[in-house]
Design brief:
Helices cover 77% and strands 0% of the residues. By secondary structure, the protein is an all-alpha fold. The longest helix is centred in the middle third of the chain and has 39 residues. The relative contact order is 0.16.
Length: 378
């Protein structure tokens, strides 16, 4: 999953190379979201996650994703880069949803912790490009090479090391009606509704927190006349996203003990509060801004795996793969709105007011999960 934010980590290089503005830089990530939505929508309609062997599906997609990701290094222009980013998202649609189903076949009583650990690993993978950028002195070719190489390693590991576990889900032949079956199932709809509230906030935070930190620290440096180390914003940006890896592990551990509904609502309440708070400390000391960013990063994705686990538990058994694929497709479709919204809010009102609107997502998500917990068949 380090492929996801490769272009975002190289935004400064690509912006200077092609003379991009803030909205165009945002599209380098939005194109991945759009490709992921297209890929998951196609997979949901064709039932790919329920009819194809997961190991082969995952391996082929991740290797193709690595190839188009590295293609960014030689991209002739911005339009070509958008196409490559779109294809990266299409191929990652065969990585993320199948991975959650694959791990779920190995666990029953501790499924929340298991899926949480996998999503935590995905979260750290998405943060990795920023750490590579800091270590490589902002060299974009190094970022693209290392992230693509990591994806190839993942493909090889799954191809030769993975087998389905003892709790494999039921399989049945292709059906055009399977996606409709998922959408007509009330409990699955509510679980997806909670996930949509979570996704309203998540990717906008992940995409723009590095830019927020860089701008905030620049304001502080100007006020204090004291320069920070050049790598400060990259390392803290990595930490803010990677903290979600610990958050996912904690979320899985707690969800199996206090219940998934209570856990996701607790995480959404905490992350929503951080989205309201961080704008208020814009330009303050890094010792104030960084901890809030790290806490936000911890909670903003701590519930992500649990929404997927909820779907594996409440969706019809023969449609779990399609339900997960449809859930992620709708969620990532929504993320495109907030990824593009944040830079427009920055242009109009400044960074101090760019993030509070993201708190609307957790409010809506909590409402959906409260209804799910009250469902007699949940």
């Amino acid at each position: 999953m380090s492929l996801w934010f490769t272009a975002s980590a190289g935004a400064e290089h690509l912006k200077a190379l092609w003379g991009l503005d803030g909205a165009e830089v945002g599209w380098l990530t939005t194109a991945v979201q759009l490709g992921f939505v297209a890929g998951t929508a196609l997979a949901a309609v064709l039932n790919l996650a329920d009819i194809l062997p997961a190991r082969r599906y995952f391996t082929v997609c991740v290797l193709l994703g690595a190839a188009v990701n590295y293609g960014l290094v030689g991209a002739p222009g911005y339009a070509a880069a958008l196409v490559l980013r779109f294809l990266t998202g299409v191929f990652l649609a065969g990585v993320y949803p199948p991975a959650m189903k694959m791990i779920a076949t190995w666990f029953r009583s501790a499924r929340g912790l298991a899926v949480g650990t996998v999503v935590g690993a995905l979260t750290i993978g998405k943060a990795t490009p920023y750490l590579i950028r800091a270590a490589a002195g902002h060299r974009f070719d190094a970022v693209a090479a290392v992230t693509s190489g990591a994806a190839v390693v993942a493909g090889v590991l799954v191809a030769f090391g993975y087998r389905d576990g003892p709790y494999a889900f039921a399989r049945r032949p292709f059906s055009w009606r399977l996606a409709g079956t998922v959408l007509h199932h009330r409990e699955t709809r509510l679980a997806i509704g909670g996930y949509l509230g979570h996704m309203w906030e998540l990717y906008a935070m992940w995409t723009w927190i590095p830019a927020f930190l860089a701008a905030s620290f620049a304001v502080w440096e100007t006020r204090q006349g004291t320069p920070l180390a050049a790598w400060t914003d990259d390392v803290i940006a990595f930490g803010a996203i990677a903290a979600g890896g610990l958050g996912c592990f904690w979320g899985g551990f707690m969800a199996d003990r206090i219940g998934r509904g209570r856990l996701v609502n607790l995480a959404m309440a905490a992350s929503g509060a951080c989205s309201l708070l961080i704008g208020a400390v814009y330009g303050a000391s890094p010792w104030i801004v960084a901890p809030i960013a790290l806490v936000w990063g911890f909670f903003v994705v701590a519930d992500s795996a649990q929404f997927s686990t909820l779907v594996t538990e409440v969706a019809p058994s023969h449609a779990v793969g399609t339900a997960l694929t449809l859930q992620t497709s709708l969620g990532f479709l929504l993320t495109m709105a907030t990824i593009q919204l944040v830079p427009r809010l920055v242009d109009s009102w400044g960074w101090a007011w760019a993030f509070p609107l993201l708190a609307l997502g957790p409010v809506a998500g909590i409402a959906a999960i409260v209804r799910l917990d009250r469902s007699p068949t949940s």
